[in-house]
Write a structure and sequence with these properties.
alpha/beta, Rossmann fold, Dihydrodipicolinate Reductase, domain 2, 2 domains, eight-stranded mixed β-sheet, six-stranded parallel β-sheet, 9 helices, 14 strands, 33% helix, 25% strand, binds NADP nicotinamide-adenine-dinucleotide phosphate
Length: 329
């Protein structure tokens, strides 16, 4: 029996679409399980230029046209956040499997219909939370699960980046879901939940520093879990992203784990409680790190799954609901 190749359609032509195209092309050459088949843009010209740059055989001048192409099995949605939920629903209704960039919606209420549609249509849906498939992150998690760190007491994670102010950029435009929390704060929040054993915090404190347009430039969160674990988290889009403010530290009673650049980690460190390095796990990306989420979609589709057991629908919903709670604070 010949193997089923996943024909991908990329929706939008921005920065992350380029990264995905590179990873998909890499995987396509490596295993042949995926094929970069089509790209869509709001502009036919942009779609054609992207297609040419990445050797993609088909281009569409609208997202709808891509969804109605019957040859496409799976779509990768790479627009600003505000369009993710609606486009996911359209794609699922057109019979496509969907890998959707984070966050799937601006508020949790807009997320639920996406899952209802995936369930009703019997189609695969996954939020592209690529950190969950990262080998270094999973190594650190395995140290926790094996009890090497002992009961967890404290977690700290920050994700700072410094974007030049531009009122038209999706990062600063409230209509496009701008702000640090939804763009980068989602990673420290997801990491805290992951290391806490996919548990909801029992208590959340939060502070958001907003600009005149109502977009949060900097935020700080404190979570307390029933286990006793406490987490200090922060993110920013207007503060310099030095590496010390882009890491994850998990402290337990008998050890600690450190993930430099945790959301795109290529190294995990196991430390003693007094800070000596006991183990260094290096895991350079074969391509750019996005190949791992593509492999997960391939694996799930080959098994006929509707959701990934690693990044489940409930995982995404829980984080989205917590992001809602943070903003309510
Ligand atoms: N997983 C990750 O590591 C990662 C990294 C960066 C971003 N992201 C996520 O990916 C999404 C896109 O981010 P990006 O950095 O690629 O953004 P970007 O460079 O601004 O690109 C967004 C693309 O969306 C399309 N688009 C549709 N409506 C738009 C509108 N009203 N304004 C601007 N663009 C519009 C445009 O493509 P067309 O004009 O071709 O239609 C545009 O090129 C975001 O939700 C973000 O959270 C994820």
């Amino acid at each position: 029996m010949s193997k089923k190749v996943i024909r991908w359609g990329i929706v939008a032509t921005g920065g992350i679409a380029e990264k995905f195209a590179a990873a998909c092309r890499f995987e396509s050459a490596r295993t042949g399980n995926s094929e970069l088949y089509a790209v869509a843009s709001r502009s036919m010209q942009k779609a054609a230029a992207f297609a040419q740059a990445w050797g993609i055989p088909h281009s569409h001048g609208s997202y709808k046209a891509l969804f109605s192409d019957p040859a496409i099995d799976a779509v990768y949605i790479a627009t600003p956040h505000n369009l993710h939920a609606e486009l996911s629903i359209q794609a699922l209704k057109a019979g496509k499997a969907v890998l959707c960039e984070k966050p799937v919606s601006i508020v949790a209420a807009d997320f639920y219909p996406v899952i209802e549609t995936a369930r009703k249509e019997g189609r695969f849906f996954m939020e592209a939370m690529w950190m969950k498939f990262n080998p270094a992150v999973n190594k650190a998690l395995s140290w926790v699960h094996e009890g090497i760190l002992g009961p967890l007491t404290y977690l700290r994670s920050d994700f700072f980046l410094h974007a030049p102010y531009d009122s038209t950029s999706r990062l600063f435009d409230p209509a496009l879901g701008g702000g640090a929390l939804l763009d980068v704060g989602i990673y420290p929040v997801t990491a805290a939940i992951l290391f806490a054993g996919k548990k909801r915090p029992a208590h959340i404190d939060a502070f958001l520093d907003k600009d005149e347009a109502g977009v949060d430039r900097y935020n700080r969160m404190h979570f307390t879990f029933d286990s006793g674990l406490k987490a200090d988290l922060s993110s920013a889009i207007t503060l310099h992203g030095i590496d010390q403010l882009r890491s994850l530290v998990v402290l337990g009673e008998t050890g600690a784990a450190v993930l430099p650049l945790f959301w795109m980690a290529q190294q995990a460190l196991l430390l003693s409680p007094t800070g000596e390095t006991l183990e260094t796990f290096d895991s350079p990306f074969p391509c750019n790190g996005y190949e791992y989420e593509i492999r997960e979609v391939e694996r799930c589709l080959a098994q006929g799954l509707l959701e990934s057991p690693v990044q489940t629908w409930d995982d995404s919903i829980m984080v989205m609901e917590i992001l809602d709670q943070i903003r309510q604070k």
